[in-house]
Input
Amino acid sequence: MAEECCICLTVPLPKIWVMHLAVNTAINGVLKRNGTRSPGYMPCDIPDLTRKIPAPEVQAHPHPLGTDVANRMPSLSTEQLASELEQVKKDKMYLQERLKTFEKRHHNERRQLGRAVRAAAKLREKLKSCRVSEKRALKMRESSRIAAVRANERAQRDVVTVLGRMADERDTLQSNLQSCRSKIRALEKQCARFPLILETRIAKAKVAPTVFRLKRKGIYTTEARMLARLLISSGCAQEKVGRLVQQFGRIFGCHVKEQMSAHTIRRAVFEGCIASDIQIGHEIATSSSVTISGDGTTHRHVNYEARHMVVRAPETYSSESSESPVEGTDPLQAVPKNRLIGVESSVDHTSETQSRGWKSKLADITSKFNNSPFAKRAGQTLSIEECGRKLAGMGGDHAADQFKTTDLLAAWKRDMTYLVLAREHLEASSPALGTLVADAGAAAIQSVGGEDAWMVLSDEERVAITAEEIERARMMLGKSLLEALPEAEQRPLDLFLRLGCAMHKDLNSVKGGNAAMMAEWANLGVPPPILLANKQNASTLRDIDVDAIVGASSLILHEELNPAELRALESSARGGVKTASLAGAIFNHKDDKKGQHDAYTSYFRELVGQPLRFPDTSNTRYQSYCAAAAELLVHREEYLGFLEVVRDQKQRPGFNHMEENVYNALQDVPTLTELAALTLYAQAITQPYIRVARRHQNGLLLGPLHHRLKTHIQSLIDNPDLLLSAGATFHTASLDGLDWEHPEAVSTVLKMAPSLPYLKPIFVAFLRGALTTWTRFTQEFAPGGAIDRASDAERDAAWIFPTNDHNEGALGRFRVWARSHPNGTEAYYNAQARVSHNQTEEFMAVHLTSEDDQKYLRAAARELDSSGHAAERRRERVRHAVQTAARAARERQERMRKAAEAQAKVDATVLILEADLLVGLTKDKLEEQLEVYRKRLGDKEVPLKSKIPKKLEKLEALQGALSRYQSRRAQGCSDTDSD
Output
């Protein structure tokens, strides 16, 4: 134990006491000169600065925190102790910073005291001046004394105030200092207790793992719902998502208490669908123009429509800042993005139904967007009229219904443009609005027949009629406003371009070339490819020399064929395309229970050295027939060998009928010639074309490509040796001058060319047919057409993708999904597909993060989930089918009734057999006589009514029919006499 000792310390005088002494001295001096007694002010007692202070008792401790604490400390690692001591040091530093703050305040008060001292000095100077003035003028002494007394009083009051304030501040600082000392003692005690607390918590953590909660205030968090959507899009079933999340938690060392139900998972997926609607509504609102595209197919005898829309949007939302304003994205910096609108069933595939489907979908999107907190927060609104006005074009295939749909939507865009222009005009002019409403009201009364008829109507009927008249008036006003605009301002409002799918153009060019190629055999007068009839037709044609019959026109004149044989011959096909189709059915059938499939793959893996997949002609994929032709020619010997293996390995060796057809076709020179023509066309034209057409670009800019393509085909027609000569190269024969897509196929055809004597004329015929088809299917790029007349800015505003692959792919993906999810609804599929395709999760992470947004998404998803949307669609299809059947039955009955009446009229008509009486008949009577010959007597040579519209033509036809009738009667009588 250390000894006690007394230490004499010379302590420096504190600054606060020095200031108090200075002030007190100054005040006493002033009062003494003025004859006033000092109040004996002393702010505080100054302690004895030299006194004996006992030295603190020093004890030796083996541990800085005490022996007892040291005994309770766990065996911690050096790193853990260092970390905890570092935290204690940080806490002490924080308290030292607080002490510095208090010292700064004390410094400020000290400065205030200095200013008070200087003020006192100034007062002394004033007193001195007063004495000088007293000597100079005795008359001013009394006034000076009074002034000095008053100044002294004011100074005393100021000093007292300052000293009082300083005393209060001193008390505050002392209190704060005491509080800081208490906190330091508390922190020291916490540091002493920390090892024990740490040991206890580590023990608890080892016993019970960390609990991770998916809910906050009873609601699953945004992150949990996002995770559910991610697992569903990855193929996880609804019922397994909850258990899978818990399993993930166990793997990562934490306990997930909640298990998400399938019901919650489904609604989380629907929330993505609602968010996608909000996203597309926002992108439409921020885009100056949009374009649309669509396609249809059937699945399980139900029609489905796929829809996409091209909008201007950022390349990705993840790079945007959530703090930036919603409208901060410059549309000029945005890029065209193809957004999936959905795949939905429809009652039929008519143009009217497609047009109504687009309008309904856009109305649903605008409703969801306008009701969202996001739109209100951004100050955005979107109307169906604005959506229609922004439509600038449509893409699709070349079917007739697509052309009509385009016309219907273009007309709708024009009407919506009228309404938008009228609305803007009426919003800017109140008198114009009043005039329009008054005129519409008057027109409504006039439309029902006047005031008396108007008063008879109910309120609902009046409102409906008035609304119709107002709408009509708005339409007329908008039309007049549009017509009054200069042409330069009208063009953007009238802009609506259409583009056909590039892949369908090429598909139809191959179809047109094949038709011309097959017809060329008859022009050459040589035997065509062997007939590839099915088993039934082959049995019917067993005794007929089909090679002697070349053209379909000769079938009608061939008198030796009976009707069954003629029908079998007309329904049977031949040639390269048919061979490729049959080969696809054998080697890669769309039904995996039919065909060779894996046996074919294994055989060619061993024989060729690499796995082969025969082109999917069984599913009619794009370019599959040309690719199949190349495949059959390159490995022709291998395919013949494989068919022989298939034949010989059977229990009863032999080909089936399809295998025999393919085996024979691969050894038939005309068939090989057509396969060679298909191969060359694909390598020279199709493959270079699709390399360009399938790029991410504006299809409206492909006019020069199609012009160059047609020019190249014509050059090959004029000089087929560019491709058929032994020295042909891709530099001159290929459309783009690049290397062949399948060089081995071209070299194989050129090697076979000497053994194919009619390859050149057949290939030229194919090119002519393809060129004719290309000309017909590229009319939208014709000089003077809408696309050609459009400016660069207009073509950019009407951005349309070159192909319709996105819609074809969406329909295919839906059919695959529907097979594996037979009970899934369209809305559930669309929710997954749209969130994945449209980058909706990124949009939600940036723009839909507030609690109001999440609340709206949950409410809208609950409404969608409980709406019975799938049942309503089924009922709609059933109602339409019943109504269509009933209408068709009524129409059929009406036709039968009219046919019965017409037949009764024909039966009641008296046939005139005297030629002289026919001249005097009227046109209607002549037609009645002709009907007798057509329907009662069965004269096939009597022309149809539409073919002979004039009276003279009818008379001539009737005279001929009468002559034939009399000849038949005379022939019948002579046969009877001979018998």
